[in-house]
Amino acid sequence: MFRMDQPLRPKLWTTLKGYTKEQFSKDVTAGILVAIIALPLSIALAISSGVTPEKGLHTAIIAGFLISFLGGSRVQIGGPTGAFMVIVYGIVATHGVDGLILATIMAGLLMILMGWLKLGSVIKFIPYPIITGFTSGIAVTIFSSQIKDFFGLQMESVPVEFIEKWHAYGNAVSTMDPRTMAIGVIALVIIIAWPKVNQKIPGAFVALVITSGLVSLLSLDVATIGSTFGTLTSALPTPRLPHVTFQEIRSLLGPAVTIALLGSVESLLSAVVADGMIGGKHRSNMELVAQGVANIASGLFGGIPATGAIARTVANIKNGGRTPVAGMIHALVLLLILLIFMPLAKSIPLATLSAILIMVAYNMSEWREFVGLFRAPKSDISVLLVTFFITVLFDLVIAIEVGMVLASFLFMKRMADVSHVQMIDLDASEEDPSQDRSALPDINNQEQQKKGIQIYAINGPFFFGATDLFLEAINQLGYKTKILIIDMKSVPAMDGTALHAFEQMIHTCGKREIRVKIAGIQKQPMQVLQKSGLYAELGAEEGFFDSVKEAVVTKGE
After folding, report:
1. pLDDT digits (tens, 9 = 90+) for 274-284
2. pTM of the model
C-alpha cells in the first residue's frame, strides 16, 4: 500500500540503538565476506560496461558506503550490478565517459526526487512481466558480450547490436584460443562446483585466485587486465563535474530515466527480499534518497551507476549481517584492497571475469519465472515477449518505454472490459438472484415506464475507457423519459473524461427537460463533481440520493 507517512530517516540511526559488540563482530565478518564477493564482480562489470577496472571498485566503495550509511534497509548492500551493464556500455559508446558521468548524476537527482515525493511504494507497481522481460533480456545481452574474452577470439571490436555481434563471432570462430578457453572453463567449473566444498568463501573469488595463479606460474599468453588496460592506479579519483550543455542533458534524459527506474526497482526488490529473510521492514522512500545520493557521488568520482545488489545482500544476511554497519565495512574492506592489492589485479585473466559474468547472466535470466509466465493471460505474455526481444535486439531504454506503454494500454483495456453501463429493468431484476432488491424501488417495469423513469447503473471505474458506452446509452433515452437516475454505487473513481461525459449528459438532459438524479455516489466521484460545480448545479437535496429506491420514491413525484 502507498504510504505517505514513511519517515525519511536512515535505518542506521535506528539500528545503532542497543547495538552490541556481538552484532558488530557479526557485521564485520559479513562485511569482509561480501567484499570478497564484490571484488571480482565490480572489476568484471566495469570492464564489460566499457570503463576501466578501477571504476567498478570506486563505485562499490563510494556508492556502497553511502547506500548503507543513508539507506532505508538494515542489510542492503549496494554497488554496480549486471542490470546497468547494457545501458552503461551504450552510453559510453555514444556519449563517452563524460556522458556516463552526467547520466549517472541526473539519475541520482531523479531518484532523490522520487524519494522526496514519497514514490517508494508506487515504483514497485511496474508490471512483473516487464521486469522479467527486461531482466531476462539483459541476461542474454550480458552472456553475448562475454563470448570474445571467454574464448579468446581475435577481433578488433565487438559490434553493439545483438545480431551483428553474433555474426562477427561466427566469422572469428577460427581464431579461438584454446589456452584462453581452458582458463575460462576452469573458472566456470570452479564457480559452479565450489559451493559444494565451502559456502563461506565465494566461488568467484576462488576462481579468480586459482586462474590468476595458473596464468602467472605457467606464463600463459592469455589476455589479462594488465595486458589489456596497462598499469592500474590504487588512488581514489578526485571529484569533478563533466562539461554540461543543454543538448547533452536532453540527449541523456532517456538513459538517465532508465538508470533511475532500474536502480529504484532493483534496490526496492532487493530490500523486499531482505525483509522476508530477516523479518524487517525497510523504508522505501529513504532507500530511494540514499540510492540517489550514492549515484550522484559515484558520478562525481567518475564511477558507474549503483543500486542494491540482491545476491550480495542475501550473502550479507546469511553471514550474520543485520545492520548497515556490515555494508559500510564491505566498502572499507574494498578500499583497503584498492589501496594495497590493486597492482596484483593486473594478473587476472579476462576469461575468468567472463566466466564470472556468464554466471551472473545465468542467475539474472530467471528462466523458470520466464517460462512460468507463459501460463499467464495472453496480454501478459505479449508484454513479456515484446520487452524481452526489444531489450535484446534494440535498446533497453526503448524496451522499458514500449513495455510500459503496452502494459498501460492492456491495463486500460481490462478496466474498460470490467466497466460497463447497464439499464436496470425492474421486472428482470426481480427474477435475477444477483440483484439486491432492497436497494431497488418497489414498483414494476410498467409503473416505471408510466412515470417516465429511466435507470442506468455504472459498474466499475468510470474513466475515459468507459465514457463512450455511457454517452451511447444517454443518446438512446426514449422521448417519454422524464427522470434519469444514474446508479453509481459500484463506481469507485472517475476521471476528467468521465466528468466531461457527465457535463454532456446534463446538457443533453437539460435540452430535453429530463431531470437527472444520482444515486449511491462514492467519495471520490462526489469530490470530482463538487470541484467541477456539477454538484451545486444538480442540487444537494434534489440531485443526490443514497439509493435508487430513494431516488424513485421522492415526495412530490
Report:
1. 998 998 899 99
2. 0.77
